[in-house]
């Protein structure tokens, strides 16, 4: 069942330690198959050294396991809520990558301070609020998905133009068309989190990128007039 | 004698440089065999490149060598004091890992600022006081174990819920059910030390994690209602 | 066509990830053949893992592709403008390397604070201004080349004595006699950016290097009286 | 001639990039043979990838090449001055390692803030003054050696108890009984430079290590009552 997608999700999970985004099992990647309405996700707490593609778990949009002998990631309900609400999302990544997590712990949005950011994220990366005790009690992981939706809707942010979020006191989620691009967005988010922290440290009055340069960099890589990469 | 435990302790020691926690021989791991009342520890100052499992030294709870041709780690009395006082501890690690040592040198407890911390440590990681001259003179390494006990008892901290401590001006000790989990706790401690330093640097007013989220993260991984990982 | 130069440019591009200067495809190296008036540059957005020397693109000084089946780097017009204006330049590198980009985002020149800097750059590395909206609209990449020329001419800096620049809010360009030395200059720029940031952080009153030591270090490696390296 | 010492010096030079202390050829290691009054040093500006043990150059205490087809390191006169003045020194290392160089650029002594420092250096690591223009003109590299001697003599520091120095605006020199221990001292100096910078950053009021703990840590590893390591 969904063997190719399992392989993609497996490979995308392996990319996390290779890119220095996680230690041990502190991360999870999933990918969606819109045709069947099912998604594939990493099992919970399994060592990356022994994990196999066939260990990936198939889950429906209510978070029920459809195939697989292992428990899916404990964050599965967050992934399910996002796939259900946003039909454009094809892959999701959660990590505790160092520099993005630092911004999450600081409780701050990551502002657009450079073109490295603008090449991938068309605006600040928002930091979602803490969950309330009631939300935690009712179902922490699903509530995490809901607070992401709330953040993007209240602020009117296009989910695919800014494919990432920080959860306050926790860490980042990123997404994309597929598992691979979602991982790439996590790499970019961590790197710009590092750059922006030290740029602000070096010059407290450092300006944000002018809108014209943000437009130029984002739009030369994304959308119908893009001219970056091979056709 | 205790051949399997020697192999475990040897492997756990090798994990220290692999995880970037030590340079040269600046660390030591031990593990306890409760049945015999003996523990196994790394020899002192031996290069990790030439060290073998059979070089591990067997020691009793008074710190006397029971088997082995090499001198045990100079920190052996600290390990002995902790194993003797806390029957729950199965493995102990000492390093001078960069970021935890920075907090130790700053003389500060590591506060709970995120879920990376909460997943492993159920509260702040305490920084123990400097030893007095009299304690140093009477036996530095044993006194180090005693000041750890004093710190946890005076503050009423559960040793297994917060499996680590900073020694002021020195560096961290961590422990766990076995050598492997003690090493993992050292990795987590170093990483949260790094994250928390820069989160505070980025936002001097960054809040500590709310109690409800600390409870949720710690308890979904630990205790009878845990649902993280495979059963 | 220009097969040896393609190989040099290919190898210089591979050196970028090896030196930790780039992630994914965020960088490009080119090299000039003054005899034919053509230069060779990396194709746009191609993975470094699958890229071959024969994928390098040959371009003329107006930025037209002369040979190659792939699109050249989207930054090709910047390279063309620089090669056209400065006949001394033989190789050019663009990256978003972490520490140089941090200074670019901070909008500050990198001052000469040590001999590591003085060994390669004979003065501060200037940070060019933001492009105006009109410049962006008329041709962003060519305008980027022009603002580099403007910066060096207005300040009267010798392009080969200070072989690098920061683009505000963007990142560094470096150059040299050939592709290899241009890469080396990128490595030095990133390292001195890191050192100078933390030196200033540690001591806000840290002095710049005295002119006599700057002269000594630069001139013992460069110019007719150099005595560093083998003859 | 001195074939074994050449091999030791060659291996010690290779250890510099492995320990992350240098990029390219920015470092040099030498070692002294007291019997012949000659020392062996790395050639100047030779790539570590192609360098061979037989490329090492034999030099006398006035800095004259006695054997070898390549030019010795441009810092050779500094090494010669130190070997001539201090008969205890058996090996010398110069690098521009990141964190030690940051303290050198900040122009500050590295204070003893932890036991990682105390295990190797029995006191602050001094930062020598800038050279005067006259000193630079008369012979920069020999003057560098002389300012190191001046620093240790004026402050009354034992050269073997504090086996390292920072040159203001430049970087560190370390030494030891042989090339290998001199390299190890460079590793320790860089690591404590990093730790102490961030400890001070985290807590501006962080205390220096009490004298009693400094004594304990230094003396359990050095001198006649040492009990660290194997006998």
From TrEMBL, chains A, B, C, D:
CDD domains: Aldolase_II (cd00398). Keywords: Arabinose catabolism, Carbohydrate metabolism, Isomerase, Metal-binding, Zinc. It catalyses: L-ribulose 5-phosphate = D-xylulose 5-phosphate. Pathway: Carbohydrate degradation; L-arabinose degradation via L-ribulose; D-xylulose 5-phosphate from L-arabinose (bacterial route): step 3/3. One of its GO terms (cellular component) is cytosol. One of its GO terms (biological process) is arabinose catabolic process. Its cofactor is Zn(2+). The keyword Protein biosynthesis does not apply. InterPro entries: Aldolase_class_II_sugar_metab, Aldolase_II/adducin_N, Aldolase_II/adducin_N_sf. The keyword Zinc applies. Residues 7-197 form the Class II aldolase/adducin N-terminal domain. Involved in the degradation of L-arabinose. Catalyzes the interconversion of L-ribulose 5-phosphate (LRu5P) and D-xylulose 5-phosphate (D-Xu5P) via a retroaldol/aldol mechanism (carbon-carbon bond cleavage analogous to a class II aldolase reaction). This is L-ribulose-5-phosphate 4-epimerase. It comes from Paenibacillus lutimineralis.
